[in-house]
Amino acid sequence: MGRDAFTAFGPGKVILLGEHAVVYGHPALAGPLPLGVTARAVAARKCALSVPKRLTGAKRKLLLEAFERAASACGHPAVSVSLESDLPLSMGLGSSAAVSVACARVLLQAAGRSVRPERVAAVAAEMERVFHGTPSGIDHTTSALGRLIRYRKRSGRPIGEVRAVDCPKPLRLLIALVGERSPTRVVVAALRDRRERWQSRYVRLFAEIGRLVEEGRTAIESGDLEGLGDAMNVNQGVLAALQLSSPRIDQMVYRLRRMGALGAKLTGAGGDGGAVIGLFREPEPAVARLAKDGVRCFVAQLAGPPAL
Ligand code: PMV
What we know:
alpha+beta; 308 residues; 6-stranded mixed β-sheet; 10 strands; 9 helices; 4-stranded antiparallel β-sheet; binds (3R)-3-hydroxy-3-methyl-5-(phosphonooxy)pentanoic acid
């Protein structure tokens, strides 16, 4: 690579427990995926993004607006940035956060500034606000830190309260895609309306999700994968009660459990489709069976020693 070229990676993320409740100040657990977005920057006359050709109309405009925020936060270094992604888009796997972190990192590098994760997360937050309006920050924080974390939002701050979470055993997930879904901001807004209407019940259910997150974290730290799986199953039940699941999601959840998952649930915003995660000691046989039936799925290890 030339002296004036830079490359940076932003991983996608998976929320293990606590989505949606995290928007209301409860903790959540999330870890990075091996898939993500790579940003490349080469010297140019001015700071610009070359937008992937398949992006048109409103999505193109949004990406350019988000990039301009990050470019401005980094002092507009004179580079042209291009993007490459192997992450499924709009599936609850943090694709916009991965774009934000990859752009933030490469622009900071090109500007000769610090690429400490906190700095990267602060610049990425500028982009995420364009994509999502009022995100909790869990997506870009997990992507910037690149490890399993317990996250809690702090109002008015670009990066929330973060605590590293370790597991003495391999924590391995099967991630299955179950189809198109509405944008996160639409699902979050509809839930906000329901919460306003039935406040005391919804507040109670969000608090329950927060408790499941803490129980799940304790289970992870003591290597109790069965305990974590049970917390995931109950979390799925509460998400379904909040009208965030769907027949397609439910079918995959039950299928993964029948195939031996210790726990299974939707991940991310949910709604009509998106991604479903299953916790397995050995996910490979289930991946092979699902792939044979045409289901898009893959394995990710979120924490713990390498699986043998
Ligand atoms: O955009 P997704 O599907 O990865 O969902 C993000 C998680 C939410 O809790 C639903 C929203 C947020 O801002 O935390």
